[in-house]
Amino acid sequence: MNFITTTLAFLLALGPLIIFHELGHYTVARLCGVKVLRFSLGMGKVVWSRRFGRDQTEWVISALPLGGYVKMLDARDADAGPIAAAELAREFTRQSVWRRIAIVAAGPLANFLLAILVFAGLSMAGTVEPSTRLRATADNSAAWQAGLRGGEKVAAVNGKPVASWPELRWEIMQAIVDKRAARLDVTQPRGGQFGAILPASALAGLNIESDVLATLGLDMARPPAVVEKVIAGGPGERAGLKAGDQIASIDGKAVIDGIALIERVRSSGGHALAVAVVRAGAPFELAVTPEFDAARKSWVIKVATDSAPELVTVVSGPFEALAKGVAKTWDTSVLSVKMIGKMITGEVSLKNVTGPITIADYAGQTARAGPTVFLGFIAFISISLGVMNLLPIPVLDGGLLLYYSLEVLTGRPLPERIGAYAQRAGVGLLVMLMALAVFNDVARLL
Questions:
Q1: Residue 46 near residue 60, CB atoms below 8 Å
Q2: What DSSP assignment string belongs to 210-238?
Q3: 22 an active-site residue?
Q4: How far is CA 333 from CA 316, 326, 430, 440, in A?
Q5: Separation between Cα atoms, residue 290 and residue 270, nearest integer Å
Q6: How many beta carbons lie within 10 A of that of residue 200, not counting itself?
Q7: Strand partners, 254
Q8: pLDDT for residue 86
Q9: CA torsion sign, 115 to 118 to 123 to 129?
Q10: pLDDT of residue 1
Q11: I need a labelling partner for 335 at 20 to 30 A (CA). Which of 175, 255, 328, 426 fits?
């Protein structure tokens, strides 16, 4: 069932993004008066086609779902044959260089526009996310050294307001990539504010693919360890625990929340635990001996506590949401370009290059997490698709834009012979990148 969900989520995410990208090319080509011969979703052999419109444009679905294309009337196409005199004005290469730039750039720009609209829509609809309230920090962590002790709420990072945990993580990731310190403006549990500095030295070398906040000692605050349910016949019931009891400490060490309770029991090794309990305001102590749960492969006392983080609903008005959408799309695009640059210089491992298998896996995970998370994932993939297509690699939109930029500067088009060599080099580079991405995907699975 997970495989089916993942496959459907992958197709549902990638299909609309490809269509939107190619519609960008198609729409601007039509506005510029260029004749469009074919609009294809997918690559390779045509499996379905229909013709519509005054120009009888062929709309097709092709066998390989990874990509798509818009075929325009082009004198360089060997299959085009002689072009009628009446059609010459609508041929692509006869358009001004600025029209050709607009047509080529329209695809990636359509992806950025889609991301902006999705982010803005999510902001207007409101998203329920973990708050920025912090859990108690370990005394050897960067967060502890910055003065954070737990219970504080982060209001901003380097001057940028953050209202939720994902926003907090995003801004710290930005600081990591930029190799700069992260200043956290925090509000203390009992009032008062101060700035906690995570120095650049603490952020240096962190892998943004990992849980960077946990590495720094930052975690979401959880409710106190209050027993919600006692499973009949379990160690907790036998020891006398009841619903409503708050676990204050185990073996003299404070238990700050439900997550800490689970961790302490799992690490007990089955030894009896001295559990300090507060019931109806009265403290007392119980001896609880965990038992091994073969299914979970861990020690348990069979009681349930609430370990969900504090949640906030982040809602924006139309104009604020649109501004947020633009800002998030821009920041994500810039971060993607910086990461590519760091891969080229060797500062970031090439293991971060991912392919269709990893994308499909994330698509399945986000689809199971709910529509809001899935739509956010689609927006991020749309940005990635836009950035990738703007890379100055021949055969990609960015390569064509490079050609046309040189034409603007020199006043003449790139010689066909040089263009042909560049195309072959671009294809080779793309094949190598795809091979690397698939290798990394398979390595992650293994």
A1: yes
A2: S-HHHHHT--B-----BEEEE-TTSHHHH
A3: yes
A4: 22, 11, 20, 22
A5: 5
A6: 14
A7: 249
A8: 83
A9: negative
A10: 56
A11: 426
Q: What one-character-per-residue DSSP string does 315-327 give?
A: ---HHHHHHHHHH
Share above pLDDT 70 across residues of the chain, in percent, rounded to a whole number: 100
Which two three-digit tokens encode residue 330?
């821009």
Which residues, 6 or more positions from 417, have their beta carbon under 8 angstroms from its beta carbon?
none
Cα Rg of the chain, angstroms? 28
- What is the number of residues in the chain? 446
Q: Please give the Cα distance from 246 to 211 (Å, whole number).
A: 30
Specify burial of residue 404 (Cβ count, 10 A radius: 0-12, 13-18, 19+): buried
- 404 neighbors 100 (Cβ within 8 angstroms): yes
pTM: 0.80
- Angle at the Cα of 111 (from 109 to 116), degrees rounded to 5? 95
Neighbouring-strand partners of residue 300? 291
Cα(105)–Cα(385) distance, integer angstroms? 13
Kindly list the structural domains of the chain, giving each domain's residue range(s) and its CATH number in brackets, ordered by start.
1-32+96-126+317-446 (no CATH), 33-94 (no CATH), 128-220+310-314 (2.30.42.10), 227-305 (2.30.42.10)
Distance CA 160, CA 197 (A): 14
Neighbours of 44 (CB within 10 A): 12
- By CB atoms closer than 10 A (0-12, 13-18, 19+), residue 24 is buried
Q: DSSP character for 267?
A: T
Low-confidence ranges of the chain (pLDDT < 50): none
SS (H, E, C) 11-46: HHHHHHHHHHHHHHHHHHHHHCCCCEEEEEEEEEEE
- Catalytic residue (one of 22, 91, 167, 171): 22
Of the candidates 93, 92, 185, which has an alpha carbon nearest to the alpha carbon of residue 134?
A: 185
Which amino acid is present at 390? L
